[in-house]
């Protein structure tokens, strides 16, 4: 059945045409503003040969060159050039070496040593290691960390990797989305990381037996029993304190760049960028090792953060001091299944001393 458009709805057509014309006008204006020649002519008027000779000679002045910390120069930003040199010569190569180097080391370690399996058979009795709240917090922080790491690597190297392959249009759209994700998820990650660090602080206080754990390489050096470890072993504590130091530095430096409206100078944001990049690259590399050990590298480790429970054998071999404190709380798999069926939820989390 044919329908006709009411006469009173025809006013939408001229308004749509007007909006189209206005949008085209704004597009042309934006393109004109983006023209490098016009921008240069506007930003640096009346620059003649004498002025450039003064600049090249190193003469300082409000209109020539500035080595001051304030961003009140016009032509040459020497601090910005220092930042560019640091980024291109040191920070970017460091990121590639750290991340790719860690991937290569993990691959070689897996091929040469293989997965660390349990020395004894599983008992089938389980100990609660991570309650639901901590697991939820961990997986949320881990997911945000991975997203921030991927988008951060894209911001650092995406231009060199994706632009030549896919072209300017794809690269520009991808970078726009990358910046949006990175800038908005960063503060959320910072808040949740601080909450998680506070929640796990009591279990990550360094102890004397942690030195012996490092001396034995977490059980990889020498033969015999595993080195002593409480609720958290020496490696887990090292990762915790890296997050509590370098991680906080990355968060703070990221907030400095994320919120330029608080009055920080350009020079402050430049050094925040250096700190942010170096810390983020380092943490990403170490996180790859943490992910490997907690998943493919060690039998039984992933189960604890997936279900909350670990087998007695795993607890005894990897965290013997904690096991001695909570071994009387072990429950059978049948009892756990009954608990799930009756929707009783998690038991209170055992704590280390």
UniProtKB/TrEMBL annotation:
GO terms for biological process: anaerobic respiration; formate oxidation; respiratory electron transport chain. Residues 329-353 are annotated as: Disordered. Keywords: Cell membrane, Electron transport, Heme, Iron, Membrane, Metal-binding, Transmembrane, Transmembrane helix, Transport. Belongs to the formate dehydrogenase gamma subunit family. SUPFAM superfamilies: Transmembrane di-heme cytochromes. The keyword Coiled coil does not apply. The lineage of its organism: Bacteria, Pseudomonadati, Pseudomonadota, Gammaproteobacteria, Oceanospirillales. PANTHER family: FORMATE DEHYDROGENASE GAMMA SUBUNIT, FORMATE DEHYDROGENASE, NITRATE-INDUCIBLE, CYTOCHROME B556 FDN SUBUNIT. One of its GO terms (cellular component) is formate dehydrogenase complex. This is Formate dehydrogenase gamma subunit. GO terms for molecular function: electron transfer activity; formate dehydrogenase (NAD+) activity; formate dehydrogenase (quinone) activity; metal ion binding. Residues 129-306 form the Cytochrome b561 bacterial/Ni-hydrogenase domain. The keyword Transferase does not apply. The chain crosses the membrane at residues 90-113, 134-157, 184-202, 238-257, 269-293. It is found in: Cell membrane. It is a multi-pass membrane protein. Its cofactor is heme.
């Amino acid at each position: 059945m044919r329908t006709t458009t009411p006469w009173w709805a025809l006013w939408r057509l001229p308004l749509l045409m007007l909006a189209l014309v206005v949008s085209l006008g704004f597009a042309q204006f934006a393109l004109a503003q983006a023209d490098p020649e016009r921008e240069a002519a506007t930003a640096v008027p009346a620059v003649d040969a004498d002025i450039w000779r003064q600049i090249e000679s190193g003469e300082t002045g409000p209109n020539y060159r500035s080595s001051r910390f304030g961003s009140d120069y016009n032509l040459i930003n020497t601090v910005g050039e220092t930042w560019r040199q640091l980024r291109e010569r040191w920070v970017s190569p460091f990121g590639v070496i750290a991340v790719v180097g860690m991937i290569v080391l993990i691959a070689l370690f897996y091929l040469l040593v293989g997965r660390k399996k349990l020395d004894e058979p599983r008992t089938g009795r389980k100990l609660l290691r991570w309650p639901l709240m901590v697991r939820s917090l961990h997986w949320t922080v881990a997911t945000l960390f991975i997203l921030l790491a991927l988008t951060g690597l894209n911001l650092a190297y995406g231009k060199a990797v994706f632009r030549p392959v896919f072209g300017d249009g794809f690269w520009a759209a991808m970078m726009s989305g990358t910046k949006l994700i990175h800038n908005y998820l960063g503060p959320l990650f910072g808040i949740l990381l601080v909450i998680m660090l506070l929640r796990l602080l009591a279990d990550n206080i360094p102890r004397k037996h942690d030195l012996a754990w490092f001396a034995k390489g977490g059980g990889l050096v020498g033969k015999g029993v595993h080195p002593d470890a409480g609720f958290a072993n020496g490696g887990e504590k090292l990762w915790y304190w890296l997050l509590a130091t370098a991680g906080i530095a990355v968060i703070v430096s990221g907030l400095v760049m994320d919120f330029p409206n608080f009055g920080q100078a350009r020079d402050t944001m430049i050094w925040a960028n250096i700190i942010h990049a170096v810390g983020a690259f380092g943490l990403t590399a170490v996180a790859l090792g943490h992910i490997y050990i907690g998943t493919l590298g060690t039998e039984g480790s992933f189960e604890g953060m997936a279900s909350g429970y670990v087998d007695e054998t795993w607890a005894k071999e990897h965290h013997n001091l904690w096991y001695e404190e909570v071994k009387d709380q072990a429950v059978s798999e049948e009892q756990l299944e009954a608990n799930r069926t009756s929707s009783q939820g998690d038991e209170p989390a055992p704590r280390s001393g």
